[in-house]
Please model this.
Amino acid sequence: MTLAEGVQVVSFAVLALTMVGAALGVVLLSNIVYSAFLLGGVFISMAGLYLLLNADFVATAQVLIYVGAVNVLILFAIMLVNKRQDFVPIPQSWIRKGATGLVCVGLFALLSTMVLVTPWGLSSQVAAGDQSIITIGLHFFSDFLLPFELASVLLLMALIGAVILARREFIPEGAVSELKQPVLMLPERPRELVEASGREVSSPGSDRRS
Amino acid sequence: MQLQYFLILAALLFCIGIYGLITSRNAVRVLMSIELMLNAVNLNLMAFSNYLDPKDIKGQVFTVFVIAVAAAEAAVGLAIILTIYRNRDTVDMEQFNLLKW
Model:
């Protein structure tokens, strides 16, 4: 084993341990903010693994898109729905967890057996390496042109759809007035009645007057 | 370095993602588990691209497409979760039975 291979093996081990530990933290920790930050750790370790696989452009894209966009988006969603609630415990939830763990371990055993048994037809060509970004660009604009354009259309659709879904005005008017949250009122100021531009306000004050 | 290491690591990550997807009750955590599974698929594609097709790296092109689709999925999924949270006032997956009965 040469020095370069040793460095590769050691960095692979470190990255793999970091990634698996962070992924387990994402799934198992009870505080979801910790989970979100550990998810960023998973993404960064994944970018390191991409570098080990001679793919610098995809590693950069992984850091930019996943850590910079998706993880920040998830953090914003956690802040927006940050409701400290304890979920009602459902009976026999350990059966669900146990069964799921069993299925996952079985699936992992199946996949690893498949990976180890299959004779892979390894190629002996020299890896693209530094030429990878040029090759990816050539693919994008020659034989993957249609998926490339469709991806842009998909991103546009997702952008508009997310904006329309998350807009508050999209809720119909009746539903809004039904769930009038007390959070929206100003708690300090006593809610006394101001005759707002001559319009009748339905309030206790109007009852008193009548 | 061998191809099998990366494939086994991707399988492990995928299984962790499935476990989180099924057992977690917070809807945001379900989305995070989906991201984990998509990353496992990406790692598979990249490993195959490096070891089986190193000259004509089509696996990396596919990975870029998967990353784009995952970003779109995360945006729409989080918007849906925000809307459900506004209507239902909870993020508990056990109470999302809008389309169930």
The longest helix of chain B spans residues 58-88. The two ends of chain B are 51 Å apart (CA to CA). Chain B touches chain A through 75 residues (CB under 8 Å).
